[in-house]
Amino acid sequence: MNHQFIHTDHAPSPIGPYSQATRAGDTIYVSGQIAINAETNELETDTLEQETERVLENLKQVLLAAGAKLENVVKCSIFISDMNNFGRINEVYGKYFQRNQPARETVEVAGLPKGVNVEISCIAVV
């Protein structure tokens, strides 16, 4: 099967040896995104809500570069540093996935890249 590596300047460049996303046929696998602003290369972590919004905007930009939209997302994986933040993260997440609500899991982890509070990856089908 042929696959295509996706890159956009509208989302942060990978901070390791991976691509922003890979498209295999009609399926798009978006790597975990954190709250780095692609224009400034700075973290946006003033509030948990702002951080979560930046993460989801980064996901959206990678999906657009791959020819998809948030409506195409069928699965999300959410990694958070503190399960006590679940409600606040979930509230922002819900604004992005009002009509289509993909399958997902939310997992508390011991640490995330650059000390962020939330990282989200997704799978989309076009």
UniProtKB/TrEMBL annotation:
Entry protein name: RidA family protein
Cellular component terms (Gene Ontology): cytosol
Species assigned in the record: Salibacter halophilus
InterPro entries documented for this protein: RidA, RutC-like_sf, YjgF/YER057c/UK114
Gene3D superfamilies: RutC-like
GO molecular-function terms, A-Z: deaminase activity
Superkingdom assignment: Bacteria
Similarity-based family: Belongs to the RutC family.
Matches recorded under NCBIfam families: Rid family detoxifying hydrolase
CDD domains: YjgF_YER057c_UK114_family (cd00448)
One Pfam family linked to the record: Ribonuc_L-PSP
